[in-house]
Write a structure and sequence with these properties.
This protein has 236 residues and is α+β, with helices and mostly antiparallel strands. Helices cover 22% and strands 25% of the residues.
């Protein structure tokens, strides 16, 4: 487990899983928490049962579609890419394997949220939508970025760069050209730019690379068929 290093209120609890300490076999070795990636459902259930021992209730899983849809964490599996809650003991969660997971709380510990942000989700405004859904002053919101594909591994095309730069000119600094029409993107920097623009200045985490840290993380870009990590947050 990775436990976020951020100055969240004491009643805010959060964690991110790694690929370690599960039961799934290759290519999902071993703590795969995704039930949509071809793994044996019994193995996924066993892995989720292990995770369940670390959290106060069954996580509010989402059907993630790279949207900017934010829902209140609750019953069922809504089609959305972020969720929030003000209810103690309710666990907001997202699954990732290169995309950026972002956890949120406010300084008073009254609301928490989790967002799944690949480049499409970022461009669609999922982080800004999550901040708005929390209904807290943006200056009172803290954000923590979990492990995602690093800036030396995240290759994108010219159109991706243009999408971000058209929205925020400062995003140009998050791209380094390394081949004709090919750019290396810093998803952490892109997220910071968008969060800061939304008024969230207290941003923590970042710096890990799911693509390069093979022993610790699943990576869709690296392996294709692979598992998923979870990032979770709740209020005590």
């Amino acid at each position: 487990m990775i436990f976020p290093d951020w100055p969240a209120p004491s009643r805010v609890k959060s964690l991110m899983t790694t690929r370690d300490s599960g039961v799934s076999g290759a290519p999902w070795t071993s703590l795969n928490l995704g039930d949509h990636v071809g793994d044996d459902p019994a193995h996924v259930a066993a892995n989720r049962a292990r995770l369940r021992q670390q959290v106060p209730s069954e996580p509010g899983w989402l059907k993630q579609v790279h949207s900017a849809t934010v829902v209140e964490t609750g019953v069922g599996v809504p089609e959305a890419d972020a969720s929030f809650t003000r209810q103690a003991g309710t666990v907001s969660a997202v699954l990732t394997a290169d995309c950026l997971p972002v956890l949120f709380c406010d300084r008073s510990g009254s609301v928490v949220a989790a967002a799944h942000a690949g480049w499409r989700g970022l461009a669609n405004g999922v982080l800004e939508a999550t901040v708005a859904a929390m209904r807290a002053p943006p200056g009172d919101i803290l954000a923590w970025m979990g492990a995602a594909i690093g800036p030396q591994a995240f290759e994108v095309g010219f159109e991706v760069r243009q999408t971000f730069v058209a929205q925020h000119p400062a995003a140009a600094a998050a791209f380094i050209q390394h081949a004709p029409d090919k750019w290396l993107a810093d998803i952490y920097q892109l997220a910071r730019i968008r969060l800061n623009h939304a008024g969230v200045l207290a941003v923590y985490g970042g710096g890990r690379c799911t693509f390069k840290e093979t022993d610790s993380f699943f990576s869709y870009r690296r392996d294709g068929v692979t598992g998923r990590m979870a990032s979770l947050i709740w209020l005590e």
